[in-house]
Amino acid sequence: MTRETSLPPDTSVFDCALIIGCGLIGGSIGHGLIRHRVSSQVVGYDANTAHAHIALQRGLIEATVTSLDTALANADLIVLAVPVGRTEQLVVELGRSARPEAVIVDTGSVKQAFTQQCAQLLPANLKSRVVPCHPIAGHVQAGPEHADAGLMEGRPMIMTPEQEVDTEVLRRVARMWRKIGFNTLTMSAQEHDAMYADLSHMPHVLAFTLMHHIHDRGMCPDTLNAFAGNAFRDMTHHAGRNSRMWRDIFYANRAEISRSLADFRRSLVEIENLINSEDQERLEQMLAQLQQARMSTW
Amino acid sequence: MTRETSLPPDTSVFDCALIIGCGLIGGSIGHGLIRHRVSSQVVGYDANTAHAHIALQRGLIEATVTSLDTALANADLIVLAVPVGRTEQLVVELGRSARPEAVIVDTGSVKQAFTQQCAQLLPANLKSRVVPCHPIAGHVQAGPEHADAGLMEGRPMIMTPEQEVDTEVLRRVARMWRKIGFNTLTMSAQEHDAMYADLSHMPHVLAFTLMHHIHDRGMCPDTLNAFAGNAFRDMTHHAGRNSRMWRDIFYANRAEISRSLADFRRSLVEIENLINSEDQERLEQMLAQLQQARMSTW
Q1: Residue-number span of the structural domain to which A69 is assigned
Q2: For residue range B39-55, what is the model confidence (pLDDT) as tens digits?
Q3: With contacts defined as CB-CB under 8 Å, which chain A residues touch B205?
Q4: Which residues of A, range 150-169, sit inside 8 Å of B by Cβ?
Q5: N or C: which end of chain B has fewer CB within 10 A?
Q6: Nearest CA in chain A to B226
Q7: Is the peptide bond before A9 cis (omega within 30 degrees of 0)?
Q8: Of A139, A264, A265, A286, which to mutate for an interface test with B (greatest number of B Cβ within 10 Å)?
Q9: What is the C-alpha R_g of chain B?
């Protein structure tokens, strides 16, 4: 610890941070880096120039860049905040243009796929400078219009570093996340992907499947609207947007999603057997216990 | 039609309506009967006397009764608005004490089970005077505190009359529902139960199963609270209350729920196969189509 404080300049501060993808997550991180002075400069790139423009106007970044290659060559902190399906091409570009001393993080919700892309596509000297990350800080609405440094306050930031990561890189990344408000924690990429298959990806599969099931039963939107209650509406809410993003997440984490679905099917058989059993006391106990668990969570 | 208008008194008006169960649904119906002068008197009974008291204070009923037998003997309109698990005992009491000329409706969300109870437990002269009904007018919160005649405005009221129902009884019931704001429609009890297995009961099974699955994976409420996103919270919301009520509905409609679950599992296999396929175009098309269906519904 004494060694750190004696290092000039402060290694928790970067010279030039490049945010790739200026949406809700990228914009919020840029905002946090500026607000907490974690980088002398924060520049943003977005394939959607309207997004980059809004982020600039809202003060989430300090400048926009149009040449990604040039920006990569100038940045000592690179934050990938793009949909899961877009990271592979960006990793290729990182390998071509990033500085050997750059610190690289991503923010995607599937970690093994990104880790494999880095292992396969990055030159050896950059592999140790990547920390795969997943901020658990969502918002009901996407886009730079809703980005804000405050979204990260007290939220978890999961880091899934590989064995080969440079210790100093990992330390700088953890310190950066904490400075902008996150509580950092570390797990393996596999642990992360299993956990998020259970907590998010598999439930989203169920939401889409509910719509598919109803479509197969021949019910049209008007019927649904007239006769379905709050439960159906709430349970399918998350099938109502971002189908492209979910396609990419489902495919990237398909092994863990299949495992999670197999577990879910076993739980479903157990509940269904209780429903069809004459012993209604056991069903009541089970449902009361699950209700209690839900109530004590939120 | 001319015959109706010549009948004194107006057959759309009852002398004494008895609401059994003064919660959200019973209270709202009582309120509507009073507001639209569909019954000269509206009295309420609730095994929970606090509920009956609140309903009286809020003007949802005009008097409370403590003896159900006496009240049944006085009523020419009887509205059962109790949980599905409580109707069987009430049908026995109806058979014992209801007047032969009474008009009887229920409001439960499972229709075949109630119909069977009436067929088995009512005397022959009362069987033709029952119209099983299901008001599609919920509210996020239960109880007489939230009851209001306005909840029924423009909402569907499904009626599932058996062949043997008295035509005049059915006509009076339909007219009563329309007077207090409902749009009435008729289907068979089996059609109703299949539809609500798909639209409500089976999705509730999935919500409880999601909590069960997570519990089996060893996740405690703190972990869920910290790491689960909006989707998991929204999809399990309806597993957070009324476990006793849902036990009764699940058991009462178990045959249709099992059929619905079997269909759902087939839809799930189809989606899972698309996720695991190399042809990601087909998955994207499917998810985009389902997203579009959800967006055009609500």
Answers
A1: 2-187
A2: 999 999 999 999 999 99
A3: 268, 271-272, 275
A4: 156
A5: N
A6: A156
A7: yes
A8: A264
A9: 22
